[in-house]
C-alpha cells in the first residue's frame, strides 16, 4: 500500500509541476501589478479555454497531492 501511494504521489507531483509550468503568467512583474492588478483582484478578467482547463487541473492535482500525503502519513504509523 505504501509503495503504491508513493508511486501515485510521484506521478501527481510530475503532473502538478507540468500543469503549473504550462500556465501563462497573469501579470508582467511590477508594472502588471500596478496597472492590471485591480482587474484580476475583483474578477474582471475571466479565464477561458485552455487557461480554465489548466486552472481546474491544477486544483484537482493539488487536492490529490494533499490527500495522498495525508494517506501516506496515516498508513506510515
From TrEMBL:
The keyword Protein transport applies. GO terms for cellular component: plasma membrane. It is found in: Cell membrane. GO terms for molecular function: protein-transporting ATPase activity. Its main location: membrane. It is a multi-pass membrane protein. GO terms for biological process: intracellular protein transmembrane transport; protein secretion; protein transport by the Sec complex. The chain crosses the membrane at residues 53-75. InterPro entries: SecG. Keywords: Cell membrane, Membrane, Protein transport, Translocation, Transmembrane, Transmembrane helix, Transport. Involved in protein export. Participates in an early event of protein translocation. Belongs to the SecG family. PANTHER family: PROTEIN-EXPORT MEMBRANE PROTEIN SECG (PTHR34182). This is Protein-export membrane protein SecG. The gene is secG.
Amino acid at each position: 500500500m505504501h509503495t503504491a501511494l508513493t508511486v501515485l504521489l510521484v506521478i501527481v507531483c510530475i503532473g502538478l509541476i507540468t500543469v503549473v509550468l504550462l500556465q501563462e503568467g497573469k501579470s508582467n512583474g511590477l508594472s502588471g501589478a500596478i496597472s492590471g492588478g485591480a482587474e484580476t483582484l475583483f474578477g474582471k478578467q475571466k479565464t477561458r479555454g485552455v487557461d480554465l482547463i489548466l486552472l481546474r487541473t491544477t486544483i484537482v492535482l493539488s487536492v490529490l497531492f494533499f490527500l495522498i500525503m495525508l494517506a501516506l502519513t496515516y498508513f506510515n504509523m
